[in-house]
Amino acid sequence: MGSMHWSRSRGRAMLPYGLGIAAVLAMPPLLNFIPGIAPGYILYLVSLALIYAIVAIGLGILVGHTGQISLGHAGLFAIGAYTSALLTFRLGLPFVVGLLFAGALTAAIGFLLGLPALRLSGPYLAVATLGFGLAIPQLIVWQGSWTGGSSGLHQLPPASLPLGAFTIVFRTDQDFYYLAAAVLIGLTVFARNVVTSHTGRAFVTIRDSEIAARAMGVDLVRYKTSAFALSALYAGIAGSLYAHLLHGISPEDFTVLLSVDFLTMIVLGGLGSVGGALAGALLLTLLQNALTRLPVVHDFKNLYVVVLGVILILTIAFLPRGLAGVVRSLRSRLPAAPERNGASRTDQIVELGEGSGAR
Amino acid sequence: MSGPLLEISGLTMSFGGLVAVDGLDLSVNTGEIVGLIGPNGAGKTTVFNCISRFYERDRGTIRFKGRDITRSRSHEIIGFGIARTFQNVELCRSMTTLENVLVGEHAVIRSGLIRDGLRLRGVRADEARATARADEVLDLLGLTVHRDRVVSTLPFGFQKLVELGRALVSHPALLLLDEPSAGADQRESQGLAALIRQIRDRFELSVLLVEHDMSLVMGLCDRLYVMDFGRRIAAGAPADVRRDPAVIEAYLGEPDLEAAGV
Predict the structure, then answer these.
(1) Which has the closest alpha carbon to B199: B177, B224, B217, B218?
(2) Once rounded to an integer, what is the mean pLDDT over residues A256-260?
């Protein structure tokens, strides 16, 4: 095998990422050429989708790779959002501090949420995490004197980034869009690195056979809680971005329905696929928005909930491997790409990951 | 090193009222291939599960390289140098053969979530080294042609071999094999005996195996332990054990044993 072969197949594997980044950079200027739309609003909407995609990627590692269910991710997302909002709004700390602290605190809480997973699995774990997801908004309302109660926190400062003597302030929708995209790209690379590594293999082994995992030296306590903490870190960072995109948050933004939303994103995208989680999040967020614009169903506010249910059922029935599975079977009909040993092997863990799904 | 590699004494394990293992003494010396046999339900796999720390024994000690392992946690055992396979195969169904074997290197690779996520220096090199070791073992086991196949598509006999490979890459000093010949026919199980001997010599390890195939056990093992209803009823060289009246009685009516000419 020559080095030509190596770089060619590597280039091929990286191609979708290169295209994705090019699309991210090119989108804002291109929007100006489309007549009849408001570029700012589209960018706001896409930013929201990118933020949800961060949550979905983190949830995917937990559910798709490690096989641990969570119906409490809206609660983690809320903790990230409120941490960041309170630190910047009440204490006047910089956004970056709010973002990092939101990630760290949420990861710590995710670690604790992982402790029941050492004893519980399947539906029991689902119920335990559901309880967590239900409790968080209630706790926020109850602690109204500093959380703003059910009316929430508003007029949050815009996101900003200190760079030496200067500070970049993300004032416009376009600014924020680039910020969200940059964070998402960084966290996507991190997630892919994790799932295609030693650690990722341990996660999948836990999902497929806990007995094998223990016999092969995988410390279930360490790896299950790590998967929860990592997943929560993503939700916390996304929550912080969410608070500063909307400049305001309230407990009703973080209902259990949002947790179901996150799960639907990764099931639709394909469990065990980082790219699938990304695609699922983008599709569902845009779909939800499009549905509210249908004039026919103007008076049916919860149409999205019904559609969500239908998507979930249809995906599980007809596309158990989600969109990622569809892409894979299309790709396998093309002439086979030359395989580089290392890359093809590690990719397969991710791609084959969704075979048995969450258990 | 003085003393046996593995030394089990007075091991007792019960489930509710049923005593599965009753005061078992057993040892494996360095370089030995030792068989643990007995009728169904004799408690053989329970012994394995006590050594692996999947089960909490009631009484008795298990010493490995002179160290008591009965207070260790199950995931630590492979790090001490004891690797095992399973009677009914515990593989990651969705992974390929190679990936499954790589799982066996978990205890060898020292890396963590953050180092892996950031692809810090050395992560790629570690992976490449692990893959090279795994490929060597696949070659030895004749699994190279199935390297990139999803393991659940392989016949049962091959899956048993993948488990063996997964155990081997951890470089164990003691290999616990739970019915290695399951899913193999007569001819294949003779090949298996040669393979196990070859592995013992090449990896300089010792083997403790639970097995039903008497012809395999008689030809392969240096020593045998025979269990019945949780008790050790005989121990010694295969030629002596097969003539032991207690063993013959325990196996009376067992067609397998008669067919094997015991």
Answers:
(1) B177
(2) 95
